[in-house]
Structure formats: C-alpha cells, structure tokens
Amino acid sequence: MQTSSIGDQQFVTLGIGGETFGIEVTAVREILEVRPITRLPQCPPYLLGVIDVRGSTVPVIDLRSKLGLPSVAATEQTRILVLDIASEAGDRVLGLLTDRVFEVTALDEQVMQAPPDIGVRWRSDYIRGLGRRGEAFVVVFNLEQLFSTDEAALIDSVSLGVA
Predict the structure, then answer these.
(1) What total of structural domains would you count in the chain?
(2) For residues 148 and 136, is the Cβ–Cβ distance under 8 A?
C-alpha cells in the first residue's frame, strides 16, 4: 500500500481515450458497472439519462460528450462513478460515465501545475491542475466548473423528475 506525504491528496484516476484524469476520492460515492440508463427527452447530448441507485434517481453525464469527444460503445471496462458534487448552487449526486477506472492514487498538491491556457483540447476552467504519476500527467478536474450553474439546475430538475 502506498503511503502519503503531507502534500499528497488521494484521487480516483480514470481514463477517457488515451488520457488520464483525476477526481478527488472524497467526491466519489461509489463506482458502478454500466447498467441500463433511462433516456430523457430534450436533454443535452452529454446528459444520458438517469439510473436507479438504491432507490435514488441519479442523472448520468457522458464525460466524453461533456469534453467534446465522440461517444463510444460501452466495454467491459466502462464504469459509472457516482459523485457527490458540492457547489455554491448546492450539493448534488450524479453519475459520470467514463471509459475505465484505474486506481486510487496520491498526487502531491504542492507540486501540481496550473492548467495551461494554450494547447489543451478541453476547456481549461474544467481543470484544477496537472499532477504527475510517474512520467504521465493526470488531469485533475475542477468538478464545480465541469458542472456549471445552468447545468446544475438541469441536473437538479432531472433528479427531481421534472425534466
């Protein structure tokens, strides 16, 4: 088991295509295998629909679509991360469809680099920072920015069954 130093924080690492991303482990409620998703009419393409998680309605976001990448068919490695998102608009639970989940790993926040403004395929405000795991970068999401206020209102209405 890996030990953490003072500046280390734990992240769940996940893959989209050939890229590795990180989400704070404290935001991850659970990791699920793909299950049937109930589609909802007139939702944005990144909002796949809802799933039932022990009696609760959980909206599911396609991370690929959210990042402007083409959707792909689910594989045996595809997972849904159920997240607790805290924001100024309030706390919410949502599912995030991802190609695969790797592991929980420590990244040193004191040496995490700020997201670059040039040459990044995704919106830089979605990125909290760039960590390193060996020679590879781990793009750490800023979950509050990834799910803006307008999207949060849409997700809330889906959770309440009013979309």
Answers:
(1) 1
(2) no
